[in-house]
């Protein structure tokens, strides 16, 4: 049995020596490791494609039924697009002011996200307050659903 194991070991060693494509040379492994060590992932500044996707999603959130709209109302689609663009541009500007080329951008991306959320909430709250103050005296302040229908009526 020991003789069989010895023969098998010799055969597999010979196969590796005659077929170098089965193993990577040490140099290639070291080069790949060096490249990976020098690899940096930068997520800031965002690409225009990513920013456009954020704007589209924000406009959709502002103009469609959601938990937010039930409380504060929706914004008409055409207005929501311009509001979303404005919110994103402001957030990008604020976050970008703190960007350092030495950082990977994760903190800046978090700041950008928080700025968008804050500005979106401020916008819908402001619109709801304006709609409530525009209501005739002696009436109850409109709910989010009533604000949404007021916005649609104003467009017509």
UniProtKB/TrEMBL annotation:
Fetch the Gene3D superfamilies from UniProt: WPP domain
Where's the WPP domain? 41-132
One BP annotation, GO: mitotic cell cycle
Q: Does the keyword Repeat apply?
A: no
Query: Which residue intervals make up region (Disordered)?
Result: 1-28, 125-156
- On whether Cell cycle is a keyword of this UniProt record, the answer is no
Transmembrane domains' residue ranges: none
Supply one GO CC term from the record: cytoplasm
Per its UniProt entry, which superkingdom is the organism in? Eukaryota
- Which keywords fit this entry according to its UniProt record? Cytoplasm, Nucleus
Location of this chain's protein in the cell: Cytoplasm; Nucleus
Database matches in Pfam families: WPP (PF13943)
Q: Where in the sequence does UniProt note compositional bias of the Polar residues kind? A: 1-27, 145-156
Q: What is this protein called?
A: WPP domain-containing protein 1
